[in-house]
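User: structure tokens for this one?
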Amino acid sequence: MQTPRRGELQVLQNVVIDVDDDGTIISIGHRDGPVTHDLGEHSVLLPGLIDSHLHAPQWPQLGTGLDLPLEQWLLEHTFPLEKRLTEPEFAAQVWPQMVATLLAHGTTTAVYFATIDVATTTMLASTCAELGQRAFVGRVAMDHTGGTPEWYRDADANVSIENSHLSIQEIQMLGNSLVKPVITPRFTPACSNDALIGLGQLSIETGVRLQTHCSESDWQHHYAIERFRTTDTQALAGFGLIRPNTILAHGDHLGDSDLDIVRLAGAGVAHCPLSNAYFANAVFPARRALDAGVKVGLGTDIAGGASPGLLPQCAHAVTASRYLEDGVDPGLSAHERGVSNSRIAITDAFYMATTGGAELLDLPIGLLAVGRSFDALAVQLNRPGSALQMWTEIDDGDRIFEKVVRLAAPADISNVWVNGRRVAGAA
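Assistant:
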């Protein structure tokens, strides 16, 4: 079951997928006779899930502090914890448990913000390589004296740039084709102009992609307007940071002109619906962005999003779009209350979690098709004690797909493969 395009559900039944030694799909078709791995009668196969935005050092605070405003949450909870994760001994406890858990949820690809520390960032990349997760790992650059605590920041712009370059080199030296570096200015409030300019230049010189936050909340959006006299998107573009395959996290406050900048640059947005409900002060217009031709993936934004699985994010994305379309204030008339033509379907959400994420990253993943890497998860139906049940009298392919996306839990995921290698699963 997969979504090759927005709004299109493809259900292939009783097929055999051949994978070569490099983990690439070489054929899909019907075949009689024995196979290496038979999923059985009550299993469905999905493309691997692509988490386009999460913060690795926030893993231990998952589910906490979410009643606070974003800037308070960062200063009182997040930055102190991220500082702890610059300690190799603590990182050695956190990284393996986090990556294994994400794989068990079917997250075959993850795009990580790590810490400001080169060593523990490299440790995260090494952990992903060891456990078999496809990953982009970024050392977080942040040097602005007004937007970061003095005990958790780069000493100056030169240090931000030099350590980011060093981190790129260390991750590349791991020699693992699944794990790559990503240049990561945290967001404009945390970075000086010199750092932003230098990191943009570093991307040009190294060919390494970029990720950052963009117009996540009222606070961040208006901060950019006050500091740069323009939108966050326009400022980032001016610093050379919006480039092909740049990942902009959140983007809830992007206007039409901002979306045009993102589209024309070949960049895209990591939509984080659950986290946005807590911190964004707005609903990201996913349908409007997709209709405008912008690449959109899906992210958990751990720990701003308190659910580590990407399948629940699909449901959250649909729910958020309904709130945006219908509105939330019953004191207004129906035609004033919401934003028309905003809702998305569950197939659109799953598309963002798979094919859309693959387009955002420009990788041959996110779809079970010849020439793509075999990143996949098998979900078991009718497991005793599970809400995920198939009723043959009423359930067709569309209904089973919706049930799987909305209801499947790690205990229902029997197998997870990355690049043809089994890396997790309850079976």
